[in-house]
Amino acid sequence: QVQLVESGGGSVQAGGSLTLSCAKSGYSYWRYCMGWFRQAPGKEREGVATIYHDGSRTFYADSVKGRLTISRDNAKNTLYLQMNSLKPEDTAMYYCAADSNTCRLLPQDYNYWGQGTQVTVSS
To answer: Mean per-residue pLDDT for 23-39?
Structure first.
């Protein structure tokens, strides 16, 4: 059974930094794309960043380019999201997702999801 467990969320002031982690267990990690998505209250879930199975390519939403960095450590079965220069509009529940062959920033392309970790950025 695939399990994705996020951690690292919290409350920060604008301009601050956070690092999210997603620990995965339950299937062959390295063959598939993984990603981070977020959902703010009253809004649809949106793609933030995705990464190839070997980390060779990454994809970002325009709104986070240059500020957020996705990475993965296959030896540790862990996905990361380094978040710098945070803005109030980054406030959302952040979800880790796995098992996609496309690596697109589309929630419907991913079959497994974590429970989410809350990120709140105050001005």
So the answer is: 83
